[in-house]
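Weekly sync notes, structure subgroup
Attendees: PM, AL, DS (notes)

Item 1: joint prediction request from the bench team. They want all two components modeled as one assembly rather than separately. Inputs as received:
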Amino acid sequence: MSTQIRPAPVRKRVFVNAPQARAFDVFTSGIGRWWPKSHKIGEAELDKPVIEPRAGGRWYQLGVDGSSCDVGKVLEWDPPARVLLAWQLSADWAYDPDLVTEVEVTFTPEGSGTRVDLEHRMLERIGERAETMREAIDSPNGWGLLLRLYSEASAE
Amino acid sequence: MPVGEIARGLPVTRPAVSQHLKVLKEAGLVGDRSEGTRRIYHIDPKGLGAMRAWLDQFWTGALDAFAAEVERSHKEEKQ
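Output from the run, pasted for the record:
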């Protein structure tokens, strides 16, 4: 018998030296200016991601050929304090309409700037639908990989 | 897998491995059970640990880039 495995949410915090509204706008409407370009969804070369600025809005990646691929959607839209996004990508970076993990981002005025807190939660739902990483991990070597990944992440 | 067996394949001491496992358990990445005096750990078979570690690194990089862009655009507007 084994205990249930449920990964803790990923939580990150940064402080930015800018007003709350600016931080909110750059995160949402300006996402194409900072989002890492290293991964692509679908076939097309990525141009930039887009978050439609409203509850129910789409979150998608535009390709250079004009095509678009969904990433998720806007669940709750409370500018300039908070946005709740659905991240609907599986472990192999493919959009899955039946998979919903939540990314909550809050923007809190603090001193001369803004504290930005991000929480990516319900990660166990990814595991419920993903089998791709099983072979790499479910082996004695998998332990070493896991420990190394973890200590690299926590050393940052 | 018992702690001793996990530690055997790693270039760190057994207490260090125990410490890591404790952290991993708190993060919800491994489970454990008692078997006599031994503690047996198991990894999530669906690879959630690696997935979470990957997302952790991804968001660190993404938020660094975000913070740099916020401050760049804020400075530009003030000028």
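Discussion: DSSP finds three helices and two strands in chain B.
Action: AL to compare against the crosslinking data before next sync.
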